[in-house]
Amino acid sequence: MTYSPAYGWTEEQLALKHSAMEFTRREVTPHLDEWERNGEIPREFQKKLAAAGLLGVGVPEEVGGDGGTLMDVCAMQEGFMEAGWSGGLMASAYTHGIAIPHIIQAGSKELVDTYVRPVLSGDMIGSLGVTEPGTGSDVAGITTRAVRDGDEWVINGAKMFITSSVRGDFVTTAVRTGGEGAHGISLIVVPKGTPGFSVSRKLDKMGWLASDTGELTYDDVRVPLANLVGEENHGFYYIADKFVTERIWLALMGYGHAIRCLNLTAQYCQDRTTFGKPLVANQVVRAKLVEMRRQIEIARSYTLEIARRYDAGENCIAEACLAKQTAVDTAVWVANEAVQLHGGMGYMRETEVERHYRDVRLLPIGGGSTEVLTDLAARLMGYAPGAKA
């Protein structure tokens, strides 16, 4: 029996979810294995998403989006993941979810017209450059520096693990324009082809194979002062403000992978015969399937509750950290059990659960590691020394 939760959605959101699933069957399923082998998705895929009305969901119409709330985004993404998207496909197709929100929030009309609108029409691909070789989750510790020189910024430094940067057209780049710590960081848009700006290396990964990931070099890169997003030295706060939606997005990926793994495994256990009976005839197998479902139900319910509260205007920074951890821990456990129940076939590249097993392993690391986010939640909830709840 296929698990396809409909509760929690309005009729419109359920229709959006089903539209995402149908799009997947038509435009993704026949090609996904090839994209995984190629290490990236074709640029024209963005145009197909835009034409289907699925690229700008959750983005205001006044900047070229399709409108809607975070809950609408959740419904759409649940449909994609339940229908079998890989983690790399989701990351690459929706990198604009982290590349353009800061420009929409604080950027000039010129920046919106030059970068945001073309991204939402599928004509450009953007990425976000925050992580550096020596900083990881320590956003406040970045060292890539931008200094003023006349009417230009001159940027020097490096970025690491940047999604969609190989095929991307620009990078919304976090740079240090002031002193040490969070108060000295700004965001500057750097277009592809700018002299001194290069993808120094395309990175090979354990999972997320359909996602192009690069290491970037900035060597005396000059861009106009007008490419500054918002106010100088306010970049950290723009970045932090969008962490809630990013972590909910990753939580959705987590329980989405888990739903797909459960459905694939339940069907396999019905079809696979051992010792003269189907696998599902064994009590221990049924117990595993039920536990997979139980953990998914909890992760999904909590994630969507936090998304609803965010849409209602609540401050959900700590709760988003908890939602991400709950969902990604579920994803890792469920994918592991899926491989185990598939037996030897679960270890084969020809079996889909093997891909999910590799893809989910990144989720407790990306978007803030579980350890970092747990400590952040402790401080926000007043559990750290000197903290106030």
Automatic annotation (TrEMBL):
- Location of the Acyl-CoA oxidase/dehydrogenase middle domain: 128-221
> Which is a Pfam family this sequence falls into?
Acyl-CoA_dh_1
Q: Which domain of life is it from?
A: Bacteria
InterPro entries per record: Acyl-CoA_DH_CS (IPR006089), Acyl-CoA_Oxase/DH_mid-dom (IPR006091), Acyl-CoA_Oxase/DH_mid-dom_sf (IPR046373), AcylCo_DH-like_C (IPR036250), AcylCo_DH/oxidase_C (IPR009075), AcylCoA_DH/ox_N (IPR013786), AcylCoA_DH/ox_N_sf (IPR037069), AcylCoA_DH/oxidase_NM_dom_sf (IPR009100)
- Keywords from the UniProt entry: FAD, Flavoprotein, Oxidoreductase
Gene3D superfamilies membership? Acyl-CoA dehydrogenase/oxidase, N-terminal domain, Butyryl-CoA Dehydrogenase, subunit A, domain 2, Butyryl-CoA Dehydrogenase, subunit A, domain 3
Name-wise, this protein is Acyl-CoA dehydrogenase family protein
Q: Which organism is it from?
A: Nocardioides jiangxiensis
